[in-house]
Amino acid sequence: MKLGKRNKKSAEKRRAVVVGAGIAGLTVARALARGGYSTLVLEGRDAPGGAVRSHRVAGLLLDAGAESFATRGGYVADLLADLGLADQITGPDPAGAWVQLPDVARPMPKGGVLGIPARPWSADIRRTLGILGAARACLDLVLPPVVGSGGSLRDQVGRRMGYRVVDRLVHPVVGGVYGADPADVTLAALAPHLATEVTKSRGSLARAVRTVVASMPAGASTQGLTGGLYRMTNALADDVEAHGGQVKVFTKVTGVSRGDDDVWTVATKDDSYPADLLVLASPMLTGLDGLEGLALDEGRPSTLVTLVLDDARLDAAPRGTGMLVAPGSPVDAKALTHSTVKWSWLAEQAGAGRHVLRVSYEGDRMGQWNEENRQRLRDTALVDAGLMLGLALTSARLVGYDVVVWTQAMPRPSAAHREAVAKVKALADATEGLVVTGSWVAGTGLAAVVDDAMTTARSLVPDAAD
Questions:
Q1: Helix, strand, coil: what percent of the chain each, to 5?
Q2: Interval 320-345: pLDDT, tens
Q3: Which of 9, 58, 105, 333 is deepest in the core (most CB within 10 A)?
Q4: Burial of 267 (0-12, 13-18, 19+ CB in 10 A)
Q5: What is the CA radius of gyration of the chain?
Q6: Rounded CA gap, 32 and 27, in Å?
Q7: How far apart are the C-alpha atoms of 143 and 439, rounded to whole Å?
Q8: What is the pLDDT confidence band of residue 413, given thresholds at 50, 70 and 90?
Q9: Residue 357 forms beta bridges with which residues?
Q10: Are the C-beta atoms of residues 254 and 286 closer than 8 Å to each other?
């Protein structure tokens, strides 16, 4: 992004328009508002936050999307500290999650990255893969570096460790956590830090995972926020407005254009807004020169069904903090989170015998939004949750539920998408007053999104981190 004329309006406040009020957009907007920009954030949905927002179910205010973040790099924790929320950061219950396999449920082996095991002959890996599967995985330690290189994540892991590792470990994690298929992404796109270590480890995935795990801070690899991760969204939006900025919801941007005076015009259905600085924190390409026909990955929609039940049988935490699901399993869900086991603050808030389960599905399972479809999904989620937890769950014990469908929350970092993003970033670098950020640029996961957003903020307002 060129800023050669950034002092052109020294006699008046520079106007910044941020398209998209997800975490990245709000993070950059906060820095701009604090840095003296007249800052306007435009969001097409009914609330800011993107996939980090709340909903109320059975009287409980809960995360409606993301509920945790990766501790890698400390990026999210640093931002939370800057927002005054450091003392609210909390770790999940150490019991850990399970994996639903086609034939049985097992505790998810610990110490891996993306499900890739650090020690393929460990007892928990042998229980999950079987003796032959674990022995095949150990070949990774002796295979030549060229084996598995240059392919998809599925093929890289499959060729080095065997496809049983992919199906029983990697696919459940990548599908359940990142909403992607290992066949559609590369290791470099999903975990660039791990890909770098693989090169240093002569191609061995296990050795690379050991190095990455050893470099992680002590404690859980993921953390959350007491009261809900959505509080980060609220704190960011409040800070933007406290410094004179404005966050407008129900305001979908339809296109952008730049005049001869280098001033941008941001168009919505009912209005237009001038901007000296345009920040695209969501994939709005209409009106950008040279990008006609460029196709960005829209991400896989996902459906989240939240169930609140009064059922003391769940006090025993039969599957730890939840379950990931391997291909060929007897349930249609891709993951289940037992939130009142995972987060002690939520268990205390819910009260004795009351439990929150989050059951997620790939794709938009609602179709037409009506009560009949909502109840159908509720009943499906109850059956799937019961199968995964080994209990018969019925609507008689249900005290509340909600259905949320997420779109564009997790674009798949495919080669085609990364190539398209590279073109967008090249245009931004060459264009006056144009910046891009957000998950569509940075990749999936709050750690990557916040890292990119803070880097972008510092490029615009050098003292943004102060």
A1: 40, 20, 40
A2: 999 999 999 999 999 999 999 999 99
A3: 333
A4: middle
A5: 23
A6: 9
A7: 35
A8: low
A9: 307, 338
A10: yes
